[in-house]
Specification:
74% helix, two-stranded antiparallel ribbon, Rhopdopsin 7-helix transmembrane proteins, 312 residues, 10 helices, mainly alpha
Length: 312
């Protein structure tokens, strides 16, 4: 049977995580708790850094950017998924899908770039401490942040426009819980070779290049830490890096498995699991990692809580 195409369908059908609806109540509770916890945790990190003068440093400035990205990431995917658990229909409008894809892709690319710059910040702080205040200034941080968000927005606009220039077939069933590029390309009736080439280029020049930059930065960081004589100096240098490198390993690990592999039907369920990790659970893990494994953050949070209690 020949598949007819239409360039702009009115809506798509999100098939969700599982075809069996008996898990819907359990998943609704799980993702509701995860969503609320992630929002509160990231807002707490953001407010702690903004309100505590001891955390007014470049590293924590970029950590506030990371908290905003995590809030945007989980708010782009989870509310719609929770809505679909409750409602009988699991549809998403065409323009809702465009918006969801654009914002999510923007967040993913921006977070990759942000984690890379945070690695550079740690490299300068540990390997060139005497020049840190000259290299990483407030102005440099501000311009770097604007550039990272702008480049992420531009890259996302290119991917989103290329994806929705495709003509989609009669079946608008997206075998996923949100609109993502690989799943949308599977619905196309036209040639998607250029789209996959564009994805490959992005993976190569952004994903792999950023990861290699982080790897090289930490090679020099570890070398410098090993040359620190005092145990306290080594401990403090290590403590400022462990949270960041933990986030990098989890984030890049799931993204590499999700995107740098063949996009075939046999990987659909695996793709969903990986998507849950980097779209839902990483925004929850990031603030927990930075608050639990970062002594300065934990102390600042404790002081802020004590100030609130005394004020009351």
């Amino acid at each position: 049977m020949e598949r007819r195409n239409q360039s702009h369908p009115e809506e798509f059908l999100l098939l969700g995580l599982f075809s069996n609806s008996e898990f819907d109540i359990l998943l609704f509770i799980l993702f509701t708790v995860t969503y609320i916890t992630a929002l509160l945790a990231n807002l707490t990190i953001f407010l702690t850094i903004v309100l505590c003068s001891s955390l007014q440093t470049p590293m924590y400035f970029f950590l506030t950017n990371l908290s905003v990205l995590d809030i945007c990431c989980i708010s782009t995917t989870v509310p719609k998924m929770l809505y679909n658990f409750v409602m009988a229909s699991s549809t998403i409008t065409f323009y809702g899908c465009v918006t969801q894809l654009y914002v999510f892709t923007w967040v993913v690319i921006t977070e990759m770039l942000l984690l890379t710059y945070m690695a550079f910040d740690r490299y300068v702080a540990i390997c060139k401490p005497l020049h840190y205040s000259l290299i990483i200034t407030r102005r440099v941080c501000f311009h770097a942040s604007i550039s990272i968000w702008t480049l992420g927005a531009f890259s996302s606009a290119v991917h989103t426009s290329m994806t929705f220039l495709q003509s989609f077939c009669d079946s608008q069933e997206i075998n996923h819980f949100f609109c993502e590029i690989p799943q949308l390309l599977k619905l196309s009736c036209t040639d998607t070779k250029l789209n996959y080439i564009l994805l490959f280029i992005t993976d190569l020049f952004l994903g792999v290049a950023c990861f290699l930059f982080i790897f090289v930065s930490y090679f020099f960081i570890i070398s410098s830490i090993l040359h620190i004589r005092s145990g306290e100096g080594k401990r403090r240098a290590t403590s400022t890096c462990t949270s960041h490198i933990t986030v990098v390993v989890i984030y890049y690990g799931t993204l590499f498995f999700a995107y740098i592999k063949p996009h075939s039907a046999s990987f659909v369920e695996q793709d969903k699991v990986l998507s849950v990790i980097y779209a839902v659970f990483i925004p929850l893990l990031n603030p927990l990692i930075y608050s639990l494994r970062n002594r300065d953050m934990a102390e600042a949070l404790t002081k802020l809580c004590n100030r609130i209690i005394i004020y009351k």
